[in-house]
Design a protein that fits this description.
single chain, 229 residues, alpha+beta, Protein Transport Mog1p, Chain A, seven-stranded antiparallel sheet, two-stranded antiparallel ribbon, 33% strand, disordered C terminus
Length: 229
């Protein structure tokens, strides 16, 4: 009887462990941005995608690293339903003083973190506008009035032409400050697939925010802010 009970317990445990594994796969944790419930038919696989608009710069990751960003997290998105497929990607990068230097705003290196975030948002808005991004409202990114999670958010569409083919790319963009560090988060989808794009936008809007970084957190990682991972 004991042996039968033990076997039943182990079987139940393995089923439970399997459920935990599936549950973990249904979550997307983007560093500095938050944890999200992944919509049905969408999967995120860790790794950078060779996104068309960034290929001339050596790829998405190389482009942002050369802009002075660090601590990256990249995912390739796949949408699958029957014979239908669609692809996209998601990423987060820490945007600190090296990024301010790259965009010509090094004079703000001693500003408060949230003030630095605002400078970065203004630069991003100028860049997106110059690239012909389509957006609603006064600017591509708009500041969210949230004292607990200060951030800028926006949604834009950008057309890219390559070898005579025009691609309509949709981007959900977030610039978020945790009290010490600012993180740029981008979610890319096919701009011609309104259903998928809307699912991803809802996923992002319902995310669980990461906790704010405290001095105690920093002390555990060392005295330098750059040591925080």
């Amino acid at each position: 009887m004991k042996r039968a009970s033990l076997a039943a317990f182990m079987a139940a445990f393995l089923i439970f462990a399997g459920a935990l594994e599936v549950s973990a796969a249904d979550k997307l944790n983007l560093s500095g941005i938050g944890t999200m419930d992944v919509p049905k038919n969408i999967t995120f696989t860790e790794g950078a995608q060779n996104a068309l608009p960034f290929m001339k710069d050596g790829g998405t990751k190389r482009f942002f690293i050369r802009k002075g960003m660090s601590n990256s997290r990249y995912y390739t998105m796949t949408w699958k339903k029957g014979p239908d497929f669609s692809y996209g990607w998601a990423m987060s990068h820490e945007a600190g003083i090296p990024f301010l230097q790259d965009i010509g705003e090094f004079k703000h290196k001693d500003d408060k973190p949230e003030a630095q975030m605002d400078i970065m948002a203004a630069w991003l808005n100028r860049q997106l506008t110059q690239q012909g991004a389509v957006f609603e409202g006064p600017s591509p990114l708009q500041k969210i009035n949230d004292s607990r999670h200060p951030r800028w958010e926006g949604f834009v569409k950008v057309k890219t032409t390559e070898q005579g083919i025009t691609y309509n790319e949709a981007y959900t963009i977030i610039l978020q400050c945790d009290g010490y560090f600012t993180t740029l988060g981008i979610f890319n989808t096919d701009g011609d697939r309104a259903d998928i794009t809307e699912d991803v936008r809802k996923m992002v809007s319902k995310r669980k925010f990461p906790k704010k970084v405290t001095l105690l957190d920093l002390s555990k990682k060392g005295t330098s802010l750059t040591e925080w991972d």
